[in-house]
Design brief:
The chain has about 180 residues and is an alpha+beta fold. The chain is built from three helices and eight strands; from the N terminus they run H-E-E-E-E-H-E-E-E-H-E. It has an eight-stranded mixed β-sheet. Helix 2 packs antiparallel against helix 3 (about 155-170).
Length: about 180
């Protein structure tokens, strides 16, 4: 079962802010991370991104979702089950064209992903829908957590672009 909040992180059932792992980056934005850098830096920086992941869930939901897109053309979609609700994991596979992956990576950089805060949420709200977007660049994994729409517009725009790709993809059940 894929776990929310990290490759080996806290399970989806524990989605409070206390369960969030620390950002695995140095905290400083690398040069070329945003479209505001020197001309031509966004394309090389986007090419360095090898994985894009979006996870969604909520406290009490019967399922959550995880979509992992890899620069090598692999797309993995998992609907994570919840034992309390009697739901099981369902996995699917598809292919993503390198041009589509690169477009999403460039969009993340143009929206300022590596300059965003680690977490956007109203501290008074511990329940509700949450989304994590995670990008891998070499050994660096950067994730941004958002709950109940509290993130910047760029976060929502990036999530919508990833969702639009997913809707158009031809997923097949995976073993």
């Amino acid at each position: 079962m894929l776990m929310a909040f990290g490759l080996l992180g806290v399970g989806a059932a524990s989605c409070s802010s206390a369960g969030l792992p620390a950002d695995r980056t140095s905290g400083a934005a690398a040069s070329g991370d945003s479209a505001t850098g020197a001309a031509g830096t966004a394309a090389p920086a986007a090419a360095a991104i090898t994985e894009i992941e979006i996870e969604r869930g909520c406290f009490g939901c019967a399922t959550g979702t995880s979509l992992v897109l890899r620069h090598d053309g692999t797309a993995l979609y998992t609907v994570t089950g919840n034992a309390r609700h009697g739901t099981a994991d369902r996995r699917s596979r598809a292919s993503i064209a390198v041009a589509d992956f690169d477009r999403l990576a460039r969009q993340a950089l143009q929206q300022g992903f590596f300059n965003w805060q680690d977490s956007y949420q109203d501290p008074r709200l511990q329940d509700g829908a949450w989304t994590v977007v995670r990008l891998r660049r070499g050994e660096q994994v950067r994730q941004v957590f958002e709950r109940n729409g509290a993130g910047p517009q760029g976060f929502a725009t990036l999530a919508q672009a990833i969702d639009a790709w997913k809707v158009a993809a031809a997923f097949e059940p995976a073993p």
